[in-house]
Design a protein that fits this description.
The chain has one domain. The protein is built from no helices and four strands.
Length: 73
């Protein structure tokens, strides 16, 4: 990364296929000033099809969120 150019955070989300639906993610505070800062990563699932899932199921991995650091141009 270039000195003095703040990086930008980006995210992507991939369903594991366990629960069908529409997956999305976003980051609040994606522009981070060196030497660091705070950002919140939010993942969202809408239109979830929970057919065949027992109520109260725990520890079920439904998606993988990847956060990337993108250097500023």
């Amino acid at each position: 990364m270039r000195r003095g150019c703040p990086p930008r955070l980006s995210c992507s989300i991939a369903s594991t296929g366990v629960v069908p639906g529409k997956y999305s993610c976003y980051i609040n505070g994606a522009d981070v000033e060196p030497p660091g800062g705070n950002a919140s990563v939010c993942a969202k699932l809408t239109d979830a099809n929970l057919a065949g899932r027992l109520g109260g199921t725990k520890d079920l991995k439904v998606a993988v969120v990847t956060v990337r650091v993108v250097p500023s141009p």
